[in-house]
Structures are given as structure tokens and as C-alpha cells.
Amino acid sequence: MTSTDLHHDDLTDDVSAPRLAAVVYNPMKVDVDELRDAVEAQQSAAGWPETLWFETSAEDPGQGPARKAIEAGATMIIVAGGDGTVRAVAEAVHGTECALALLPSGTGNLLARNLQLPLADTGLALQAAFAGQDKVIDVCLIDIERADRSVDRHAYLVMAGLGLDAKMLANTDDDLKAKAGWLAYVKAMIAVGKDDSDLRFRYRLNAKPEQAMRAHTIMVGNCGSLPASIELIPDAALDDGLFDVVVLKPEGFGGWLQILSKVLWENGVLSRTVLGRKLRTNDVDALNYATGTKLVLRLNRPEEIELDGDGFGTAVAFKTWVDAGSLTLRVPSDAA
């Protein structure tokens, strides 16, 4: 499948196919009794059979329950949880015939934000699941090498990062996050902002020659919108067969001003209109963009890494690539 096959008109809905829904839910994020009532109402209205239910745990955040749901015959899995639950379930579902539907919970809801799906309306989210359409998107895969030379593979839907975002997540107080949401990230960002150490690494993007670089932060995005209406990568698309690489290289206060101007003004304001997009500038010294399908990167020392907003320990190297069109999502029927 080529990237030209994967655009927003790739929406289908075959009502004649066998249908069976399953809910994979994080019991710490949802009110299960209320959710069961809402699911039963929507499945009945859409003429679906009784929904299956699978609970995640600290030991298994979603991959195992998702596989059990597929083995039980589910053709659609509704994910009720935060970004970590969505990522874990998608890791098991991508590449199968089963579709994924999102019931956002938690503070981030990054994939739902990028798809402009309902964030606070359970009824609308479930209506999209049971009576919506299919949309095919890309999934990014990553092999993370650890200091002991072991390698583990994961999927991510939104973003992988080294540097500011990963260190920030590693310093986030989970108790404060549960009580105060994004205020916990602000506290962590202040702490990390005092760390001026750079990443030093060698990398190879696609088939280009290997290069060396020093940077503050590097992020690989399957899509580009963050909470608080921050458009980190305004041209990123979930269905273009590519990922976008963002490198932050600020030199002092002036470099951070360049980054803030680019992200908050050009990406966040100008990019919302056709005329505004024509006024955007090229890369600035402190912020560079690139696109690709495969990136291999090796660090000079172990660094914190994050996937879709969750810390994944430290890495000494990674290889990431795009699995184009490998995940089917349920979206509202008027998405086209």
C-alpha cells in the first residue's frame, strides 16, 4: 500500500459484515457501571449484539485484553482509558481485521485530539463506535535498545521523544497528575528546564548517509497536535505513510524565543488559514523538521525515552519505522 492510498477519503462502513464489539477498559480511568449503561444503549440502537468486556491491569495495560477480545471474535474494540491504554491496545490490534474505537479518558487524549473526536461526550464517542465509519491510519513501530543490549519492540500512535518531553515525564509526580492534571506537567517542566545537558547522537534517516548531531530534544511524530492547542507539527498526518521528525536546538534564551514563535504563532495561528500557511517561514536555527519512513539513532549515553506521553525508561539506541495503513479506527459518520 502506498501513501497515496491513505487519505481522508478512505472511509468505509460495511454493515453486512459480522459485528461484535468489545470494551477494553482501564478501571482506574472510568466508571464501569455508567459505561456499561451507555454501551448497552448505543449497541441496541445500532443493532449490535451484546458487547464483550475486558479489564486492564498494572501488569497488562491493554495488549493481553485486546488479544483476548480478538480471539473471542471481536470486530471492534472500544478503548476506554488514557493514552497509555490506547497505545497498548493499538499495539495488539494493528495489522488485524479488528477496528479500534476511542472513548477518551485521562488528561492527554492525544490521538483523539488529533482526530478531533469527542473528548468529553461518552454518548457521541460511542455513537461513532457503533454507527460511524472506518478510517485507516498509520502506526509507528520502534525497537528500543537498552544499556544491557536487550531490545524491546513497541508501537506508538502519536509521538516518540528524547530530551525535554521524556525528561519531563520522568519527573512528573503521578499523585499530582491524578489530582491536578496538566499542572503536574508544568511542575515537571520547571524542574527539567534547569537541565541544560544536550543529546549527542548519530542518526540515519531513510537511506541517507549517517550523520552526527547535538540537540536539546528530538521527537518523531505520527501526528502533531498537543494539548492546549499546541501544533508542534502542523503538516503531520496520520494517514500519509510518513512520520515527521522535530529537532530542538536552542542556543540560549533567543533560541527558545524562536521555538515559541514558530510553534505558538506560526504553527498555532498562521497554519489555521490558507493565507496564513503561505506566510509561514522555513526552518529556524533552533527548530528543524524532516519527514521519513525509517530512522535509526544511537546516543552517546543512555537517555530517557517516551512513547505517546508515557515514560519508557532509558535507551541507548532505537530504530523506528512506519507501518502504513495498519490500523482501522472508528470515526463519526460525517467525518468525510
Automatic annotation (TrEMBL):
Domain DAGKc: start-end pairs: 16-146
PROSITE patterns given in the database record: DAGK (PS50146)
Keywords associated with the record: Kinase, Transferase
Keyword Transport among record annotations: no
Pfam family, one: YegS_C
Cited PANTHER family: METHYLGLYOXAL SYNTHASE (PTHR30492)
Protein name from the UniProt record: Diacylglycerol kinase
